[in-house]
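tool=predict chain=A
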Amino acid sequence: MKIYPRHIEQDLLQRLHNFPVVGITGPRQAGKTTLAKNIVKDTGREALYLDLELPSDLNRLRNAELFLKENEEKLVIIDEVQRKPELFPLLRALIDQHRVPGRFLILGSASPELLRQSSETLAGRISYLELTPFHFKELPDSDFKKHWLRGGFPPTLFSLTDEAAFQWIQDFITTFIERDLPQFGLNAPAQTLRTLLQMLTGVHANLLNQEMLANSLGLTSPTVKRYLSYLENTYFIRYLLPWHINIGKRLVKTPKLFYRDSGVLHQLSSITNSSDLIGHQLAGSSWEGYVVQQVIANLPQNLLPYFYRTKDGSELDLVLVKGNHPIMALEIKMSSNPTLSKGTRIAHQDVGKPPLYIVTPHEGDYPMDENIRVCDLKYLLEKL
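tool=predict ok
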């Protein structure tokens, strides 16, 4: 399998030279282990790799303090660190005794927020980076249609056939429900979680209605909120918040929900090939979610993503904000000959008429109007 550089590599190296601990978080199978092992040769350090899913490596940490002190001159990589949260206070103590950059590189399949719920904080000692599944810009010779269909997890992206790719995703979802979520503390019936995930395919790229989900599942709204929190913190879904500005209009304040990986969305929607996808009723929302994920994965830290919608229906799919000022807006459409509604033009004016890109899955770009351009995904990502 060809090895593609990951976009966070240089940032990771820089942080290893500045922080005692660097944490790489992201969903399972996104490539965290491969990245960590590949980056070692660039650090100039001897490294020790521990996989906490292996009984042999867990056994080496039976007396963790002694073991880690004996290896304090090495870069210690601890994979699946969430399996042993009692390590966090020990890491904190060891760092305070011998504070040098690049002592530990920890890998976890959950957000820093979820890791902190069950562990001693390493605030001031750790810098976190998120590794997503492969995004389009990391695959310069890739067909975006294949990437959109299968998603970005390496085992799916590099499978020889669509059938093999979606079999992997099916197994991945089962493992996620039956093993990963309980490991993080979500003790819920597997069938309830599976039903929730399938219901969320209809919510994808739409406003979240927790009460509707709760009623459909026969659960309370707080219970559904807790389930969704775990899905968010394990990088399965994301919320996109609405942009609020003081324009004297009634604005939507409910977030939109997206599956982070298009392949997972498609598997849960029984979409397993390109023909299924293009003809499916979810094609438009799938394309919107795919573009949103690609944009967010490539955003510089000083840009924040939102959507904009008023109660009367004026809307922009994505607004990129720097400081308190929208600097770019996106409308995401399936059509090869897109048009803009009156509501979109009003929304564009509401947010100050920044450059507006209408992103379609069709090659080419051309101006539609002053400060408005139709373009494909590749063109858009070059502008970020």
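The first strand starts at residue 21 and ends at 25. The chain is about 40% helix and 20% strand.
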